[in-house]
Amino acid sequence: MDRELVADAVVIGSGAGGAPAAAALAKAGLDVIVLEAGPRYETRDFNGVESEMVGKLLKASRAGDSGHELYAGACVGGSTVVNDALCWPTPAEVIEQWVREHGLASFGEAAYAELVATVLSEIGAAPTDLAHTNKNARALERGAKRLGWAGQPMARNVRDCANLGLCNLGCPTGAKQSSLLTWVPRAERAGARVIASARVTRIEADSGQVRAVVAEALDPATGSPNGTLRVETPRVILAAGVLETPALLLASALGANAGTGLQFHSSVYVAARFADPVHAYYGPTMSYAITEFSDVNGRRGPGLMLENVAALPLSTASSLPGFGSALAGPMESLPFLARAVVVLRDRTRGRLELDGDRRTRITYPFERGDLDRARTGMIALARAYLASGAEQVFLPVNDLAPVTAESELDALESRALSTRDTSLIYAVHLFGGAVMGSDPTTSCCDEAGRVRGVKGLWVSDASALPSNTGVNPQVTIMANALRVAAGIV
Question: Of the four listed, 59, 117, 269, 392, which is most buried by Cβ atoms within 10 Å?
Answer without folding.
Answer: 269
